[in-house]
Amino acid sequence: MHTTRSHEFQTRAVEALHDETLRTALGRAKDGFVLKRRLAFDALPEYEQLRDRAVAIKNHTLEHLDHYLERYEQAVIRQGGQVHWAENAEDAQRIVVEICSKAGATSVTKGKSMVGEEMGVNAALEAAGMEVVETDLGEYIIQLAGEPPSHIIAPAVHKTKGQISDLFHEHHAKYGLTKRLTEIPDIVNEARQVLRQKYLDADVGITGANFLIAETGSNIIVTNEGNGDLTNTLPRVHIVTAGIEKVVPTLDDATTLLRLLARSATGQQITSYTTLSTGPRRAGDPDGPAEYHVVLVDNGRSAMLRDEFREMLRCIRCGACMNHCPVYGAIGGHAYGWVYPGPMGSVLTPLTLGLREAKDLPNACTLNGRCAEVCPVRIPLPDLLRTLRHRQFQHQIGTRRARWALGLWSWLARRPGLYHGITRWQARALKWLSGKTGRLKAMPLAGHWFKGGRVLPVPQGETFMDAWRRREKKP
């Protein structure tokens, strides 16, 4: 498992803000994601109805999750596969290593899987003496760099073309590929050239799952490179790793969710490859694995199912929330310190690792609400982040100064007359302090906000309530 650094969020965020290369890479990627998504949904008149249907599907499944998981397991067994249950990441690591060891594996190919990152499967297999090769181009790039993903659908979004060229030049020389490449098609082709033999040599292929179908025992993955197909058909053993919330009742239900997934993630109507795997190779099949295993991972999901964070289990991992998040857009994914970045990570990481470990993440949000607006399954992320903040305050997690400030604000907010009087005075004082510039470069008790040269636009000299009253008095 990648080293957890969620407790270092503030330090890493400041470093990211000063990284000009990172900011350039994030700016280019964000514009593409946001524009393509908007165009895709503008061309889909039934978008809101699809969202409502998706929410109903996920809510129904979560309400009866035990039933559908049992149906899924029975269907997998009928198709000749095996299902393994992992309570936590350590259980999942052990199960995967045991399957690979029993198969006598020395080489393992792996498709992109956020649950695989969550359970730390690469490190566990490497510790057992096996070679693990990421087959998704983005994951392959960051594997060479020795870094975790910075985005759930574009793991190497923080890398520039020049940085990737340098990585390939450094690591591919052992394959006789010594020319430094500068064009994207050439870089992609070199990766294909290296990975082709890895696919053929692999004893085990590991993929994730976008959806698990209870009625058929099928696993669906979506990719744009075809790496998932090669990973699950060429090796003699195929292992699927998935969170328990990935199950849906029927293929029709999966179709509804697929119509939202690609549009939300990459702005496509559908990904280049949408692949269903159902059990091991049968008599007469031209290819496919001899063994088919599914590792279903809980790792805190059952606890979420029982409390007010159940809605987070609707997440289909499209990445739209982080693509539209101003905080993620400024600092990237690595600052969040674990597998899941952005708004969804700011909810999932504290719930999985603990609020004390990830105490800064629920506060790394402006609560502008954009993430909830674009979420295809209507997860109220700002509400969940506010709930985590409330828990922090209740459990006295965070600095004494922050708790004191929140307590003072709460006391004032319950006294409207005093609150409006103080805010009216504050607005006028800030305007006076800014002089003719209309901006402040420093404020008492707000030093962290101004780090990195940021300035604060000041109010116009009156509060919103005063401006509203003045507006209402006009004829």
TrEMBL record:
Keywords: 4Fe-4S, Electron transport, Iron, Iron-sulfur, Metal-binding, Repeat, Transport. The keyword Iron-sulfur applies. One of its GO terms (biological process) is lactate metabolic process. One of its GO terms (molecular function) is metal ion binding. It comes from the Bacteria. Residues 305-336 form the 4Fe-4S ferredoxin-type domain. Pfam families: Fer4_8 (PF13183), LUD_dom (PF02589). The keyword Flavoprotein does not apply. InterPro entries: 4Fe4S_Fe-S-bd, 4Fe4S_Fe_S_CS, FTHF_cligase-like_sf, Helical_ferredxn, LUD_dom, LutB/LldF, NagB/RpiA_transferase-like. Transmembrane segments: none annotated. NCBIfam families: LutB/LldF family L-lactate oxidation iron-sulfur protein (TIGR00273). This is Iron-sulfur cluster binding protein. It comes from Thioalkalivibrio sulfidiphilus (strain HL-EbGR7).
